Amino acid sequence: FPLYWAIRNAFAGGGSFIDLDNAVAAGERYYRGATQSAFLGNHDVVRFASQVARGNDNIGPWENVNDPMFDGGATSQWNIINRMSMGFAFTLTQPGVPLIYYGDEIGLAGGRDPDNRRMMPRDSALTNNHRELLRRVQAIGTARAGNEPLRRGARRTLYRSNDFYVYGLATAPGAVAL
Question: Is the pLDDT of residue 72 over 70?
């Protein structure tokens, strides 16, 4: 959980990339040399897609929230897909072992535990929205697999503001990812 709340705040809405960068730097100092796992969600928290759709994570365990990738709710599916895509791009470019909780790769809905442990839908039940998010996550994963700095690079902040964040990863001179 060292980065979890900063990631959620930055990408689910309302948070600052400065706060996210500060959390990354604090984790690097505190956990120096330890392998970490950045993630967008797990079995203990409200699903990311539901938090974006609701505008907060105040969703109880028995609310059985609608899947926003089907009906959209107050927020468009594109907003959910784009926010989750950026969150996955961040988590999959952090040093360590990224963790993807089942269903997050398609934007599965859910409130607090146990509602966040819903059944994974069959491929035939996925909407175009689910498939678009999955395609993006797969592309980010493929980029990570094919680029050593994305997997093992030392991170360096290049620019940060509340709304914009640029960092680079390098394993050696000339072996850089931005």
Answer: no
